[in-house]
Structure to design on (723 residues):
């Protein structure tokens, strides 16, 4: 196998909380707290989490929009953590980002043609070729050259998102960071954008980091899935595994909370386990396992000891005491579905029976 | 056979031939074009559709929330035997304040940031439905024992919507609450007048998946306990399937299909409904369609016939000329599509699979979403 294109190791991003007259740093918001993953060339990693889980901060830190406070980010072997301006200039022609809101990421006073010409000019494309290159880009995202003279307000949400993708592609990047690219769109449009992204990946061998809160979206799209909660990855593994046998109680709760449209899917979902309470503030992260305040299986040990991130059954890695031999005694009252996966008794954890 | 009777048994609310137009500089935009719907007593009904299909305009015209002009509303809206459109504003306020409630989509902007939750909800409990109390009467009642009773009721209601620590929440400002708690406060507020009809516009959509799940569970409990009739408005078909008894699918300002929930999802009939359902990503990993080509109709100059015809893979010349009838296809089931005319053999009617294959990618297609 080739080297991974992107390696993220123990990435940390703490935002200082300042208080008092002299603005002393009194506390930290631990937005990203020790996140590690890597993506191979041409693969897709889906980063899933609810708001406040730090998933967008991960992407922003990779591309240098905010500095990291710890850990390393390596792109194609080169350390790009807190990259210098010179490094960033090189990096940004290889890594690009597509943002969630298609409207606010386009300049309302520029025509689509002008918006798309900016990255081309930055790459030194001569003025005489600009128009032709922009039309090429538009065609790549299945828009025609009529859009050259249009303003963003004349376009629908889906069309705007296509323009954003075209703009990101202008510099011929290798890695695209997709931050909820479809969450502002209707389902019939979302399906088209996903199809477009799949085509582009095939055509140009792109590597994607796909950030979303919608689990069902990544089922077919991502090779690997990582589930984030309060700045930590709780479960990471091949998408197939995470969906068929979600091991972490949080992954299961997320899966079971999705409103689905068919009976097959209903049967496929893990048993419905509504979570208690709300997501704690990242300023005041619970001790021990971060999820213990909402976990249906939490024991005393969970509130004191921080679980390690370990591989289960040579499959996905999970951060949960249930899968740790040392804590096996503490989980007597956990229903079978949770333990069956550990013991590897072949009982799929997505049964519907209590 | 045509489906022109209200489909609900024992209807609480019926909307017949509702038309809403908006005057604009470019002419009249005919947004809602002949919508018929009904909600039975104790029934949970959903209007599902994508952005711009007119679902919110329908809801707003029922509750008289549209400014007229520029809006022009016509048709018949009957609520428990009373014709609503002919009522004066004051009479309508009375009916609305005492018997209907609305929960808005955005829990962030629906509460007044300058008053505590307690003040806002107690005002609703005490003065809800009285639009013309008068200054003297207001102060007399505001500072009487009635206020304490109202406050008690609010705390009780907050407890019922499972608000954590309701006594404390009463003295909190909306900005101190999380999104999920604000949504709960709004639901509590909507239930204070003990409404017969609850209208929920995209409830919980702005919230996280796990919180959304909690809110839907809560809503299901409340519907059961209070024997509510509910009109839900949502773009999420999964939500429609989870909570409702019957679904109306809207497209381009018209209802294109209606059926009991189970029937609609097991056996979607209209090509639009089929395309929509096929476009939803599946948990099981089945292949999903690559969306519906084209975009929603321009309301200033809508297609003359079926409004979905320009995007429909099965459209014929007939579809482009005249609006199809609402054909009855079973109990409480209707489809507005010529393919469901009795003269058309069943074999010519599309299945979801066919529609899915029509809507899976074709190279060289222009993407107009």
């Amino acid at each position: 196998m080739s080297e991974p294109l992107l390696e993220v190791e123990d990435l940390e991003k703490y935002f200082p909380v300042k208080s008092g007259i002299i603005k002393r740093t009194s506390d930290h918001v631990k937005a990203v707290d020790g996140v590690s993953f890597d993506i191979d060339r041409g693969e897709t990693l889906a980063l899933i989490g609810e708001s406040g889980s730090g998933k967008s901060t991960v992407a922003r830190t990779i591309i240098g929009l905010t500095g990291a406070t710890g850990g390393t980010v390596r792109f194609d072997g080169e350390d790009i953590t807190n990259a210098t301006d010179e490094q960033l200039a090189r990096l940004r022609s290889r890594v690009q980002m597509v943002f969630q809101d298609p409207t606010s990421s386009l300049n309302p006073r520029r025509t689509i043609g002008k918006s798309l010409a900016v990255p081309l000019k930055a790459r030194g494309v001569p003025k005489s070729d600009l128009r032709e290159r922009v039309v090429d880009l538009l065609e790549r995202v299945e828009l025609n050259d009529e859009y050259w003279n249009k303003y963003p307000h004349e376009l629908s949400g889906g069309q705007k998102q296509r323009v954003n993708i075209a703009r990101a592609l202008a510099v011929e990047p290798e890695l695209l960071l997709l931050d909820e690219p479809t969450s502002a769109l209707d389902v019939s449009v979302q399906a088209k954008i996903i199809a477009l992204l799949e085509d582009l990946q095939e055509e140009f061998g792109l590597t994607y980091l796909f950030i979303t809160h919608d689990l069902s979206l990544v089922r077919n799209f991502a090779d690997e899935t990582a589930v984030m909660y309060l700045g930590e990855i709780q479960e990471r593994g091949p998408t197939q595994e995470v969906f068929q046998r979600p091991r972490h109680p949080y992954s299961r709760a997320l899966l079971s909370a999705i409103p689905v449209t068919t009976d097959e899917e209903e049967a496929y979902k893990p048993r419905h386990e509504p979570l208690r309470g709300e997501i704690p503030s990242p300023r005041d992260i619970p001790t021990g396992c971060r999820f213990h305040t909402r976990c249906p299986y939490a024991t005393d040990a969970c509130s004191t000891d921080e679980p390690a991130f370990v591989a289960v059954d040579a499959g996905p890695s999970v951060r949960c005491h249930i899968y740790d031999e040392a804590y096996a005694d503490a989980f007597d009252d956990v229903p079978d579905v949770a333990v069956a996966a550990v013991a590897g008794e072949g009982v799929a954890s997505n049964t519907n029976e209590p | 056979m045509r489906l022109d009777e209200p489909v609900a048994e024992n209807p609480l609310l019926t909307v017949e031939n509702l038309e809403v137009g908006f005057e604009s500089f470019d002419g009249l935009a005919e947004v809602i074009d002949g919508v018929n719907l009904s909600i039975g007593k104790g029934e949970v009904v959903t209007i599902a559709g994508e952005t711009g299909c007119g679902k919110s305009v329908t809801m707003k015209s029922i509750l008289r929330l549209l400014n007229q002009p520029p809006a022009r509303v016509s048709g018949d809206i009957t609520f428990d035997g009373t014709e609503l459109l002919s009522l004066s504003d004051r009479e309508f306020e009375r009916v609305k304040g005492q018997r209907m409630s609305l929960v808005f989509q955005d829990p962030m902007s629906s509460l007044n940031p300058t008053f505590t939750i307690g003040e806002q909800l107690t005002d609703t409990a005490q003065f809800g439905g009285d639009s013309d109390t008068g200054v003297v009467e207001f102060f007399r009642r505001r500072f009487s024992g009635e206020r304490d009773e109202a406050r008690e009721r609010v705390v009780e209601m907050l407890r019922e919507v499972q608000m954590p620590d309701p006594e404390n929440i009463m003295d909190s400002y909306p900005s101190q609450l999380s999104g999920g708690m604000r949504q709960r406060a709004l639901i509590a507020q909507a239930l204070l007048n003990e409404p017969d009809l609850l209208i929920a516009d995209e409830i919980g959509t702005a919230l996280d998946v796990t919180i959304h799940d909690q809110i839907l569970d809560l809503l299901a409990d409340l519907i059961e306990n209070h024997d509510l009739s509910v009109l839900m408005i949502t773009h999420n078909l999964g939500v429609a399937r989870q909570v409702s008894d019957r679904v109306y699918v809207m497209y381009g300002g018209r209802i294109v299909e209606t059926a009991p929930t189970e029937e609609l999802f097991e056996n979607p009939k209209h090509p639009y409904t089929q395309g929509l359902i096929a476009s939803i990503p599946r948990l099981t990993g089945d292949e999903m369609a690559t969306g519906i080509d084209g975009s929603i109709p321009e309301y200033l100059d809508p297609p003359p016939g079926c409004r979905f015809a320009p995007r429909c893979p099965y459209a014929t010349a007939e579809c482009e000329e005249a609006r199809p009838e609402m054909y009855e296809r079973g109990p409480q089931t209707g489809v507005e599509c010529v393919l469901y005319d009795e003269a058309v053999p069943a074999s010519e009617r599309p299945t979801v699979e066919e529609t899915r294959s029509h809507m899976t990618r074709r190279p060289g297609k222009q993407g107009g979403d």
